Amino acid sequence: MVQLESITQFFIVNGTLRRSQRKTLAALVWALLYEPLLGIAKMGHHLAMAKQTTAKHCIKRVDRFLGNLRIDIEVAQGDLIRTVVGTASRIFLTLDWTEPNDKVHQILTVNLRAHGRAIPLAWITVRKDALKNRTRWYEQQLCQRVATLIPTTG
Description:
alpha+beta; about 20% strand; about 50% helix; single chain; 2 domains
């Protein structure tokens, strides 16, 4: 079992989000590793068990983090890309459109292919009604953003 402290240390060393935001993000990643349910209450309850604090406090922490408009998702995705890609000389990226269960949105992801898996590096969520005749534009925008975030090698 991966310890919460090791994930927290990883996020503290790697990343440009505020320190408190990196610590909360690390806690959420840890909670999702061992309780892969995306509900705010479920993540909060699992986090509370690990931190030996009240579920109410942790649920509030999860909710505030997810609703925090000061967290720049592009900055967090850039941190993820720099960490995962590292100094690799060659990478293989894929694009994938996914439809979540809400039937209203589409999610476009850029994924790193590694060891037969696709690791999501960046993503955008778009309302379906905004996609008409603009699918390629969204793909180009996301690819251009990712290209600026990939570390260049020597």
